[in-house]
Amino acid sequence: MPPPPGRPRSPLALVTAVMLASLVLLALAGPLLWGAAADRPDPSAVLEGPSAAHPFGTDNLGRDVLARVLTATRPSLLLALTAVLLGAAPGVLLGASAAVVGPRARRLVTALINLLLAFPALLVALFLAVVFGAGAGGAVLALAVAGVPGFARLAQTLAAGVAGTDHLAAARVLGLRRHRLLHRHVLPNIAEPLLLSTTTAAGTALVALSGLSFLGLGVQPPGYDWGQLLNQGLDRVYAQPLPALAPGLAVLYAAVTFQLLGEVLAGGAARRSPAPRTAPPPTAPWGSPRPKAGEGPAENGLVLQVEDLCVELPTPAGTIRPVRGVSLSLRTGEIVGLVGESGSGKSLTALAIADLLPDRARVSRRTLRLLGADLAAMTPKERDRRLATGLAMVFQNPATALNPSLRVSTQLTEAVRTHRGAGRTEAVLDASDALRRVALPPAVLRARPHQLSGGQRQRVMIAAALMVRPGLVIADEPTTALDVTVQRQITGLLSDLRRDTSAAVLFISHDVALVGGFCDRVLVMYAGTVVEALPADRLASDARHPYTRALVASVPDLTADRDRPLPTVPGAPPDPLVPAPGCAFEPRCPRRQDRCAEQPPPLESLDAAHRVACWLPLPAEAIAP
Question: Domain ABC transporter: where (predicted)?
């Protein structure tokens, strides 16, 4: 398949294509062109060394070694591919079946795979080759059986990611039989990585099959493959090495070709975009509208709408619910701050929205819409694409968020090439422009993350967010590890991003003062719930929840008495394993009453822009400036 316009084929792909084409050509034409010379004995030219007539010498019957090596391409490749396919088919079915069978059968399948993997594949192949008998058929069956456990474990691992999807659960509800579940809902979702693994396994099988023939357990005379030719030339390897090296070089060449083919296919799969069949639209200039079909905000202007979000995490001591009933929304161009103590659930809320929680985490929600689309109603591929193009994350620690082994250019252009269909040149130009917008020179593209300072790495993260032109940016404490000057620069960049692209920003931070001066609205979280939501300009003067007021009071200013300790919130957050039946803040609240320990307060509106979850909120006149 030719590369799409604007995406030049890599040198590795070209080299691999040439090598693969040469193997296919030799396998098809080798027996026709050199078959007669390979089988014609010549008593006058027995065991000759390399010459013009015989570049790699002759064997003990005077047959041309080069002709035999070229002719052996077809049987060597066919036997190796047959062994791989015979091992892959039952292995994939065995491993993938774990996603559609019941719990007891799943445990049995897992135990069987673990038992099979306990034996080294090469030793199993050698043992079975002896049991099945020397010959091409026995060697192929031995390698196929030895390869089953590896394919089974790979398929089991891949199928585990499909087992918990909504579309598979819906198919179960419809009453589809297990073989239809496997055929329609499991195998199509894991076919691509299995194909890549099969390609690379072909090279390994070729080497193993040649090894069995070399030991006399594979192809038997008068047939021959590369392994047997290597055995025949081994006796005179010191006097005339070329007759032995020729089949060895052929095995190496073919094995490397299959390995490179797997690498190229894997790289192409990582870069390939599931874009529509039509050509992608040209990249819009910075700051100009660029919505795609189905990717714009909803009619009510909401970029993100979350209702009743809950997260459960299983632990050895029991299941905890660090996020409980969180509801929030962001409009186009709005910056909303999310504040609270460590452990209040801020980051877990963001990760749940971005679908980045661990596999064992259980997420429930009544509504989760991004850019007008219901994420829960999408297929995993559609949801991944929507999140990849509509949402961007700026993490707290860019040193771990950026891949230390890749250059900045690769990490900036990967997403836009994968999801926007941009060519390499176009993506690099966009990356240079994005770096300029965050006050970094284009030369940073050639750097690796460890060569940059903390502030520069965070700027790169913001530039990466600019690359996909998202509708929502989640900044998870992006200024925590930076000094005050760089903090101001980063918040300024996020403000510019909001102004130029109309993206909404969910800004998570511990710094109440920073959030109050930077955001439009503020959500205060405590023990996994939102306890107050109010405009940011009213945070310092009009907070009504005792917890919010305590957070504001703990922020020092220039008028604070330096002889007195800084104000703190007394007590400690509640134990997530033993949730209180009433208000979570009740043990630490100076205004607590009996009702507070019995019933959790709902988040109720005090006015059009202010909501608070408290049975006894502070009166406005008590905190007026």
Answer: 304-552
Contact 424, 508 (CB under 8 A): no
Model confidence over 194-213: pLDDT tens digits?
Answer: 888 888 899 899 999 989 99
Same domain, 326 and 450: yes
Tell me which long-range contacts 570-573 makes (C-beta under 8 A, separation of at least 24). Answer: 573/341, 573/343, 573/344, 573/526, 573/527
Residue 42 lies in a domain: no
| Calpha distance 21→3 (Å, rounded) | 17
Torsion of CA 612, 616, 621, 625, to 10 degrees: -50
| CA separation, residue 27 to residues 72, 242, 509 (Å) | 8, 22, 63
Report pLDDT digits (tens) over 163-205. Answer: 766 456 545 533 456 877 787 778 887 888 888 888 889 989 9
Which one of 223-232, 358-367, 404-413 scores highest in mean pLDDT? 223-232
Dump the DSSP string for 399-426: HHHS-TTS-HHHHHHHHHHHHS---HHH
Cα torsion 365, 370, 372, 373: sign: negative
Residues 82, 195: one domain?
Answer: yes
Report the CATH number at residue 249: 1.10.3720.10
Q: Is 575 left (phi over 0), alpha (psi -120 to 50) or beta?
A: beta
Range of the domain at 160: 59-269
Answer whether 93's CB lies under 8 Å from 148's CB: no
d(CA 12, CA 67): 29
Q: Do strands 302-315 and 362-364 pair parallel, antiparallel, or not at all (unpaired)?
A: antiparallel
* pTM > 0.70: no
One domain for residues 186 and 316: no
